[in-house]
Amino acid sequence: MIFRQLFDSTSGTYSYLLASRRGGEALFVDPVREQMPAYLQLLTELDVRLVHALDTHTHADHVTALGALRDVTQCRTVMGEFSRADCVDHYLSDDETLDVDGIRLRAIYTPGHTNESFSYWIGGPQPAVLTGDVLLIRGTGRTDFQGGDAGASWDSITQRLFPLGDETLVYPGHDYKGWTCSTIEEERRFNPRLAGRTRAEYIDIMANLNLPDPKMMDVAVPANLACGQPEGRD
């Protein structure tokens, strides 16, 4: 399988390109609009045809490339069923499977960071999960806007993600310290917000982060509800 982790340094965002083989079909997860030239170059060099572009949730810190990729490649845009974006071609329901040329992607509803966040599990000999902003490496996504809920975050992580198995690789939507990959076991044992904590303790931690709003939130959220397209386009 072709698996590429790409990074946008401005927002600290990871995007992911998956394809089963050269010359086959591909999908992008959490693409950033400013990185479009790099994405198109990679698609050409790997000789893959993009058929789906997915977001894990409505991002507040960058503008998505879903609409731009659809314009150029004629791919389908995909998000979870609770997204308020009306520009999406297909809305995945919880536990729905997306099969792309031998790649099996299962949608897992994991609210908490936002009330419409999904994670995407990748089957195969080495299972992996793309967690978006719900579970980060040695951290978790903030829960103080866009319908976020710390209790729901705890439940999503402990009841939906941790049962995926200790050896499952964790690929987050963000990192700000240079970490690229983890495992379910590592996060269960070493994540300082989760390891040895109770649900009540976690909720208290999240309530006292006192983080500033993302700098691009007022621009990014409205843009992303339109798949990152200029106003008036779908």
TrEMBL record:
Residues 12-174 form the Metallo-beta-lactamase domain. GO terms for molecular function: hydrolase activity; metal ion binding; sulfur dioxygenase activity. One of its GO terms (biological process) is glutathione metabolic process. It comes from the Bacteria. Keywords: Hydrolase, Metal-binding. Pfam families: Lactamase_B (PF00753). SMART domains: Lactamase_B (SM00849). This is Zn-dependent hydrolase.
